[in-house]
What we know:
The structure holds two protein chains of two kinds. By secondary structure, chain A is an all-alpha fold. Chain A has one domain. In chain A, helix 2 runs parallel beside helix 4 and helix 3 packs antiparallel against helix 4. By secondary structure, chain B is an alpha+beta fold. Chain B has a domain of 125 residues: 2-Layer Sandwich (Alpha-Beta Plaits). In chain B, the strands form two sheets. In chain B, strands 1, 2, 3, 7, 8 and 9 form a six-stranded antiparallel β-sheet that branches. The longest helix of chain B has 38 residues. Classes of the chains: A mainly alpha, B alpha+beta. Chains A and B meet through helix 1, helix 2 and helix 3 of A and helix 1 of B.
Amino acid sequence: xxxxxxxxxxxxxxxxxxxxxxxxxxxxxxxxxxxxxxxxxxxxxxxxxxxxxxxxxxxxxxxxxxxxxxxxxxxxxxxxxxxxxxxxxxxxxxxxxxxxxxxxxxxxxxxxx
Amino acid sequence: xxxxxxxxxxxxxxxxxxxxxxxxxxxxxxxxxxxxxxxxxxxxxxxxxxxxxxxxxxxxxxxxxxxxxxxxxxxxxxxxxxxxxxxxxxxxxxxxxxxxxxxxxxxxxxxxxxxxxxxxxxxxxxxxxxxxxxxxxxxxxxxxxxxxxxxxxxxxxxxxxxxxxxxxxxxxxxxxxxxxxxxxxxxxxxxxxxxxxxxxxxxxxxxxxxxxxxxxxxxxxxxxxxxxxxxxxxxxx
Lengths: 113, 237
């Protein structure tokens, strides 16, 4: 259970220590990729709590979502339409839903104890 | 579980990079017009304060200057300066005329004896120059003052105790203004002195008046013997 948290900390430390930064015009893509990744992460946590967690679905979903979000943003830039807002909206709604489900599950777990 | 960890590592990495990229522009001048105006006003107040300070200091300086010039001490100093200048203790410059006394070319000299400038002639020349409005005179670099003596000692003409041996002897004359200088020049051109010097195998050349001629100060201290101020009676003289 603590391994993912440790991984998150290691990742953040790596990112901060590497002193790596991306140019301004690509920060859009990265932000939406981060959003997608978070969405997948919380989805995974929810699935785990609901005991329907499938590793293949999780990993493929992670990469597929990121790729989709990035390509949507790319398309939006080239069409002159802010398509990445669609991705932001979708991911945002799902993020809230996932977190709400996680919360409910945790509450039922706590109260049943 | 391991794949989950790997993915969290990737997410952490992405988050960190996103943070760093967004954090970059830190220092920006975000003051709006009003704030800028206030800052400008502050600076202007400072400026006016400094200007006031400068002005007051300048006023003080001017006050001190006037006090100094109007003070009694300064008056005395001025008088002393004037007297010194009159007595010939300072260097003087002004418009004037230059006169040169030189030997006539050797071919013309019949008498091969030592050439000398006779004190008698020099005194006469000096009188003439003084008559035509000279204010300060120097002969051969020696300032002529009231007590200057021109005389012959052991076959040499001396002025202020110094020999006039080297020809040409330069006589510098300073006059009141350029007009007087021109006058003096014209009078000297037609003066008899030239012929009198010629008899002594000397040639007198009067040079054009110049705007600036500098005459050196009297070198020695002035000693006055046998002279004392007149004691005036009470209430009058």
